[in-house]
Amino acid sequence: MCGGSAFKAAREDSNEQKKYDETGLVVSSCKHCVVPYAINMFKGESWTHTAFMHNEAMKSNAKFFCYDVVCQYWKWMKTKVARHFPEYRNLTSEMTGILPIMHKNAHQLPCKILWNPRWTTGMGLTGGEEHEQVFSKLYLYAYVLKHMAKHSNRASYYRNDFLTLAILYWNWDKAVSEILNDTHTIKTEHFLENYEREYKRLDVYAVN
Ligand SMILES: [Zn+2]
Ligand SMILES: [Zn+2]
């Protein structure tokens, strides 16, 4: 079985941990560790979350989609989703799926060959593990977030706003370091759109 027991793999309709309000976050990241989207999870991690991220990546003209169990997800997207919803066919036909270079080691030999980032044209030396840096940073916030109210009491930000600001702060730091290093690899729309959208939303809370 791909993914093994070492890595927690999502399933199509995972429904664990029912006793919690929110069970976690699904976070996507580009190879520069800028976070375009995060989803609040109310059940277990599922491929529908992944599909949302995949679709957004497609819309921003991404060519590669990296996921821990991409071998199974790709098959689901191609045979189950795209068959019934042809508008999503381009997700698999125009993009290339890859396994993160370390996670691939938990897969069977055919997966290690077929979804290997090192053997994928156009990938360069990108290993597909970059998002782990984002995750390791965001895990730290769990200690404060779990004590915060879900809804705003108007005196303070609540959980979602705190997280949004934390992610925007992270994105800004990544963008600034790219500019300072003069690498200019980040597309400005990556974070500028995020900023406008989220700050507008947060302003609404401030006014009310
Ligand atoms: Zn596999
Ligand atoms: Zn990027």
Question: Keywords, please?
Answer:
208 residues; mainly alpha; 2 domains; two-stranded antiparallel sheet; 45% helix; binds zinc ion
Structure characterization notes:
The protein has 208 residues and is mainly α. The protein has 2 domains: 1-128, no CATH class; 140-208. It has 8 helices and 4 strands, in the order ββαβααβααααα. The strands form 2 sheets. Strands 1-2 form a two-stranded antiparallel ribbon. The N and C termini lie far apart (51 Å). The protein binds zinc ion (2 copies). One zinc ion binds next to loops. One zinc ion is lined by residues 30-32, 34, 186, 190.
Short description:
This protein is mostly helical and 208 residues long. The chain contains 8 helices and 4 strands; from the N terminus they run ββαβααβααααα. The protein is globular and about 45 Å long.
